[in-house]
Amino acid sequence: MSDERENLTYPLFGQAVRELAQTIADDGYEPDIILSIARGGLFVAGGLGYALDVKNLHVMNVEFYTGVGATLEMPVMLPPVPNVVDLSEKKVLVADDVADTGKTLKLVHDFCAGHVADVRCAVVYEKPQSLVKCEYVWRRTDAWINFPWSVEPPVVRRDGQVLDA
């Protein structure tokens, strides 16, 4: 990873999701379900859901990153895990903010494989080292990405205490 930073703003994110949706539509892919990888993929899935007129959104909670460049050894699915029967024979679009190592996307893609009619991946960013090469990518980069939803520290601690501004 380079020391360079890719800075995504909320206005640019809106443009990115619309362009990503247009790429998917131009390809003729019409997903039945958008499966969001939480947390960053929630924003992408919501935008794609509106742009592609898909109301059936599901969430897969996966923990992998623990900090900047720090990860668990392998990604872990957190409950509640979607029931594969809800995905059966559907065209599923897996949405996430970034395909960095690709391990999270691979976990979710493999979870769907064999149960769905078709599974494809859409991300805002894809890095060259990603194990998964996504069908739909807005931009490719090797830089660390500062996403607008995660660049600022939390406003509360997990115990509910408000942090000083």
Keyphrases for this structure?
glycosyltransferase; glycosyltransferase activity; PRTase_dom; transferase; Rossmann fold; alpha/beta; PRTase-like; 24% helix
How would you describe this protein?
Keywords: Glycosyltransferase, Transferase. GO terms for molecular function: glycosyltransferase activity. The chain has 165 residues and is an alpha/beta fold. The chain has a single domain (5-146), classed as Rossmann fold (3-Layer(aba) Sandwich), CATH 3.40.50. Helix content is 24%, strand content 33%. Strands 4-3-2-5-6-7 form a six-stranded mixed sheet. It has a two-stranded parallel sheet with strand order 1-8. Helix 3 (103-112) links the parallel strand 5 (91-99) and strand 6.
Summary, kept brief:
By secondary structure, the protein is an alpha/beta fold. Helix content is 24%, strand content 33%.
Number of DSSP helical runs:
3
CATH architecture: 3-Layer(aba) Sandwich
- Which class do the helix and strand fractions yield? alpha/beta
Number of domains: 1
Outline: globular
State which percent range the strand residues make up: 25-35%
Domain Phosphoribosyltransferase: 11-152
Pfam family, one: Pribosyltran
Organism: Streptomyces meridianus
Protein name: Phosphoribosyltransferase
Write the layout of secondary structure elements.
Elements: E1 5-7, H1 10-26, E2 33-38, H2 40-51, E3 57-67, E4 70-78, E5 91-99, H3 103-112, E6 118-126, E7 136-140, E8 144-146
Parallel strand pairs: 1-8, 2-3, 2-5, 5-6, 6-7
Antiparallel strand pairs: 3-4
